[in-house]
Amino acid sequence: MRRRDVAIDVGVAGLVFWLTLAILADGGLGAATPDDRRLDLLGVLLAAAATLPLVARRRWPLAVYLATATASLVLLAFGYTLDLAIGTAVAAYSVAVAHGGDRRPVRRWVALLAVAAFVPSMTVLYAVLGVRLAGIGTEMVTTGAIFVSLWLVGDRIRLRQERIGALEEQARRAEREMLRERTLAAVQERARIARDLHDSAGHAINVILVQAGAARLLHQRDPERSRQAIGTVEEVARGLIGEIDRLVRALRDDGTAELGVPAGPAALDELLARHEESGLRIVATERGVRRALPPSVAWSAYRILQEALTNAARHGRGSAEVGMLFGDEAMEITVANPVARDGGGGAPVAGGHGIVGMRERATLLGGSLDTADGGGTFRLHARLPYHSLMRADDPVEWPADVAATGRPPPAGSERAP
After folding, report:
1. Number of domains the chain is built from
2. 229 pLDDT band (50/70/90 cuts)?
């Protein structure tokens, strides 16, 4: 139970206790008669028993009701004038909130009968004490109406609390489902990146094999070119090790085969051209000197730009501004597209799967991806560091047989210089 609820219950119990003492001290709500018993120590104790248990009304509502109702009837039996049993009325309201819709039929009917029996019990007690029932008819009807009203109000409050609880649980389930979907999207994107890494490693190993074969063939005929080939092998291997070290630590799931994505700046130009042919108006600017990109950076740049342009076509207003920066340490991509203000279209949701996938790719490369939606424009900026990865475009003059087959010859097949 929260401290706020405890404080409220203590305050309610104290207030009801004070009001009950005031009623008893004044001889009831009407004019006092000589037969009325004045407030004394016993009356104070009984008043406390009829009100102070309200402190625990949330935890044990039915027990608190029975205690306050019994104490109130004892007050009447001893001749105290208690025209309105406030403590019992508040306890009856708590019983309605707690047990009015109880799924256990026995508990629900016991609670209802206990509350409904209070006014008849008062009537029987007054008759036993010799009080003329005709003179207290109005009091009994009023008390009965109060208890019925409190039960109905308590039951409505219970229904409202149940609806609020159901809505809160639905919101929690939706949040958990959204988190699960985002996690699944990130895992799927990591699996795709793992397949890209597989393609990158396969490409690098093929380069190493060909260069190693060339170095073996040229070792005696052209030592200088042989050393160049060996240097290329070393550079490609070092880059591959760095790439695997960065990416494979975050990847654990296997995936199915997937067609490779075109790598390199030329593929980005083709991607822009395809989107322009599909109707998207693109204004592209480029800064820096184009350079060979590591496979992971090239493929991530391609997919990020592809997803950004798809979002611009789907959620935007038919145009986009694309900026590409080939820096010394990283490649940066910026895509900005206007979005509709009338609710007919808008920016993609920041937590959507597309944004999750793009951010996952940039993060695994040690970079970043930021989005902003303001002023009628959705802007995306990605930074993809190179990390001094392998460069596979250093040309090497290969022997004619190697160039023709694309594979190094088997060992022992070298021709004499």
Report:
1. 3
2. confident
Residue 66 structure tokens: 């029975």
More confident residue, 77 or 259: 77
Same domain, 355 and 398: no
Residue ranges of E strands in 339-376: 368-374
C-alpha 293: how far from chain center = 36
Contact 291/317 with Cβ under 8 angstroms?
no
The CATH number of the domain where 331 resides is what?
Answer: 3.30.565.10
Question: What one-character DSSP code corresponds to residue 283?
Answer: E
The token duo for 335 is 């895509």
Question: In whole angstroms, what is the distance from residue 288 CA to residue 268 CA?
Answer: 15
**Is the whole-model pTM more than 0.90?**
no
The answer for 411, left when phi > 0, alpha when psi is -120 to 50, beta otherwise, is beta
Measured distance CA(375)–CA(335) in Å, rounded: 15
For residue 155, being part of any structural domain is answered with: no
Strand partners, 281: 319
Cα 72 to Cα 4, 25, 42, 84, 222: the distances in Å are 28, 15, 13, 9, 113
